[in-house]
Each structure stands twice: as C-alpha cells, then as structure tokens.
From TrEMBL:
Species name: Caldilineaceae bacterium SB0675_bin_29
Protein name per Swiss-Prot or TrEMBL: MFS transporter
Gene Ontology molecular function: transmembrane transporter activity
Chief site of localization: membrane
Record key words, sorted: Membrane, Transmembrane, Transmembrane helix
Domain annotation Major facilitator superfamily (MFS) profile: ranges: 214-448
Length: 448
C-alpha cells in the first residue's frame, strides 16, 4: 500500500510543480530593467486587469454570497444552520488557506501560473459543479445541498490558496503609485457591471421558475468567471529570480512569529486594521435596524442598496487617486471615519430618510477597505516576503470577519443602539491608531 502511495504523491507533486512552472529558470535582473518592463506593459496590464475585475464582479453579483446563494439554500432546506454555514465557508474558506500557500508562492519566480494553471482547477472548475447542483434541486434537494456546499467550499478554498499570488502579481506588474487607481477604476467599472447584474438577476429570479432561474444565474456567472480567467491569462508578468533566503524555508508559524516580533510598524498596522474590521461589525445589521424601527418596505431596502453602491462607486475613484498620491493609510483613515459617522447617525436617526446617508457612508468605508486595505500590505516589505505579509494580514482580518458577526448578532438582540455604539467606538479607535501610531510604509521606503 505504502509503495503505491509514495509514487502517486511524487507524481502529484511533479504535476503541480509543472503547472506552476516552478522548475523553469528565471533570470537575475536589475530593478531598473524590471521597472522599465513594468512601465512598457503598464497600459496593457491595466486594461487586462480592469476587464478581469469587471467580469469577476459581474459574476459575483449573479451568485452573491449575501443574497442569491442564501436564497438558493432556503429552497433546498428550511434549516437556518446552513445559511450560517454558508457565511462561514465564504469568509473562512477564502482567508484561512492564505497562510498555507504564502510560503510556496514566495519561493516561485512566476506568480501568474498560480492564478491561471492552478487556479483553473481550484477556483474556476468548482463553479461547474456548483451550477450542476441546480439539476438535482427538485428531485433530490438533500444531495443538491451537499454537493452545493462541497462545490462552494472548494471554490472558496481554492480562491484562498491563490489569493496571495494575485496580490503579488499586482505588486510586480504595477508601481506602488499606480495600484490605487487600478483598484479604484476596477471597483468603479465592476460596481456598475455588478449593479446591472443585480437588476438582471432580480428579474430572472422573479420571472423564471425554480430551479431554472438559478441554473441560468449560476451558469452565466460560471461563463463570466472563465472569461475573466482567459483575460487574466493575457497579463504580461515581468519575471525575475526571487531571492531565496533561509527564512523563506522556515515553517509558516515560525516565520509569522519572527515577522510580528521584528516588524513593529506592521504589528501596529495589524492592530489598527483589526479594530477597523471590528468597526465593520454593524454593517450587516443596519437594514435590520431600519426595519425594526420603521418597518420600511422592500422598495426602501432596495433604495438603500442603491445608496450603498453610490457611496462605494464614487469613493472608489477618489480613494484610488488619493492613495496613489498620498498613500493608502489616508484612505483607510477616511473610510474608518465615514463608517463611525454612519453608525452614529444610524443610532440617533429619527427618520428613515437619514439612513440613505448612513448607507452612502458605509459604501465609502467598504471602498476604502477594498482599495487600500488590500494594497497597503504590499508596501510593508520587499518581494521576498510579500506573499507571507499578505497571508498574515488576510488571515487575521478574515478571522475577525468570521467571529465578529456573532458578537454583533448577540448585541442586536439587546439593542441596535449598543451595537452601533460599539462599532463606532472600535472604528474610531482604529482610525486614531492608524493615523497617529502607524507609519505609512510608502513614506518609510521613500526616506530610506
């Protein structure tokens, strides 16, 4: 038995290494040579990644993990446990694997094969199975539910494995002073596409019978994800030999401890960023608070969603340009202030009309965490440790995002006022620490 397992394991490792092009040599290149190639391909890579982002966000609007997927699960079972399990898979599946893959990603010279070759099987193919589960929804809902959860977990786990490679690819393809506008434009264009997708998905769900409506939605989302994969494959990566250090071969937990002990500014950043994440606790409960206070209609809730998208889309472009000029820390501080202000208004509002402003401010916060929350991490270290820094940050913030809604749900049963007050206080503390305790990593790099 053992004699069969060992060759099979070696074959699997060899196939993965071949997919990742791990054994292909890479030239030792100067920073000036790489920088020249980056600028030469800047417009091409910018266009390719914006188009990929638009495809991705449009696909996500057709299989939203906060609206459409829970709705599909409710058609398969009336047990609310599976709705909660869906949220745990969505957050934990994407964030937690990043610590495991960060080390191997660091040791490979090419990042694009992680997304294109390995990502095809780990992230894109599971969506085919997810779509196919709709065919069992009527005849065997239990099997459909089991296969759906398996496909959804595989998709999120696969996305989590390759996520550090995606962020590292952006780091090597775009200068630090251009990443903000890349994310801002991507989120702006993708936000418009996502809004149109949300309108279309609502009509499909209303006009077509179950499960054909979900078959069409999931099928379209899968096609869009594969289209984005094909476009992303056109990215021109400036390949160079990554420095191999003794530390890069250490176990991830050993390296994590060393980084947190040595890098005081990064440790401070994680503390402030974690508090900002805790400050996001109230976001999921603002709509419920409005319904509880004034019994607002479904149409009003839909209008609140539009207000959220308006705040998000407008600030995407603003934060992108601001981050490129002043650094991502400024955008995170402004986003945190917007969220805290929104919670104060939500707690004190006497009219449902004021909740439109609340949702605009929360859209501003969401934009800052996506545009700058992801990109600022790339500036804390050089290319030799960048994936590990990404994995540490995303795993810690992901853990908070998984756990903190449970506290929010408990506080909501007592008082929405308490929930919003705690969210605002945590967010403000995070803003103060980010503004006055954390040094902007870009400015540190410029002064050294």
């Amino acid at each position: 038995m053992l004699g069969t397992i060992i060759p099979a394991r070696r074959f699997a490792i060899a196939m993965v290494r071949r997919m990742l092009q791990a054994d292909l040599p890479a030239a030792v290149r100067s920073d000036e040579d790489v920088e020249a190639e980056v600028w030469r391909n800047y417009n091409w890579n910018f266009s390719v990644n914006v188009i990929d982002g638009a495809f991705f966000l449009l696909a996500q609007s057709l299989m939203s993990a906060t609206t459409i997927l829970p709705f599909f699960v409710t058609r398969l079972t009336d047990n609310p446990f599976y709705i909660g399990l869906l949220a745990v898979i969505a957050n934990g599946g994407w964030f937690f694997p990043q610590l495991l893959s960060a080390g191997p990603i660091e040791r490979t010279d090419r990042k694009k094969p992680w997304l294109i070759n390995l990502g095809f099987f780990l992230e894109r193919m599971p969506l085919v199975l997810l779509t196919a589960t709709t065919l069992l929804a009527v005849s065997s809902p239990s099997w459909a539910l089991a296969l759906f959860l398996l496909a959804f977990a595989t998709y999120n786990f696969g996305a989590g494995i390759i996520a550090p490679a995606w962020q590292d690819l952006l780091a090597v393809c775009f200068p630090a002073t251009r990443r903000g506008r890349l994310m801002g434009v991507t989120m702006f264009v993708g936000g418009i596409a996502g809004a149109l997708g949300a309108i279309g998905s609502s009509r499909i769900l209303e006009t077509l019978p179950f499960p054909r409506n979900f078959l069409i939605l999931f099928g379209l989302a899968t096609i869009l994800m594969f289209a984005g994969w094909a476009v992303l494959a056109l990215t021109r990566e400036p390949v160079r030999q990554v420095p191999r250090t003794a530390e890069s071969r250490l176990r991830i937990w050993t390296r994590l401890g060393r980084i947190l002990r040595r890098d005081r500014n990064f440790r401070r950043f994680l503390t402030a960023r974690g508090l900002l994440a805790v400050g996001g606790m109230g976001m999921a409960f603002v709509t419920a608070a409005a319904i509880s206070k004034w019994d607002v209609s479904g149409g009003t809730v839909g209008s609140y969603t539009v207000a959220l998208l308006v705040g998000q889309s407008a600030s995407n472009l603003l934060f992108g340009l601001l981050a490129d000029r002043k650094g991502h820390k400024v955008a995170l501080v402004l986003g945190g202030l917007a969220a805290a202000s929104g919670y104060v208004i939500a707690g004190l509002a006497a009219l449902p009309l004021l909740y439109y402003l609340v949702f605009v401010l929360l859209g501003v916060y969401f934009s800052s965490t996506f545009v700058s929350g992801l990109m600022i991490v790339l500036e804390f270290t050089g290319p030799e440790q960048r994936p590990t820094y990404v994995g540490i940050t995303n795993s810690i913030i992901g853990t908070i995002n998984v756990v903190i809604p449970l506290l929010g749900g408990w506080l909501a049963t007592i008082s929405y006022g308490y929930l919003f007050a705690l969210s605002a206080a945590a967010g403000l503390l995070g803003v103060l620490l980010m503004a006055f305790w954390v040094a902007d990593p870009r400015h540190i790099a410029e002064n050294t």
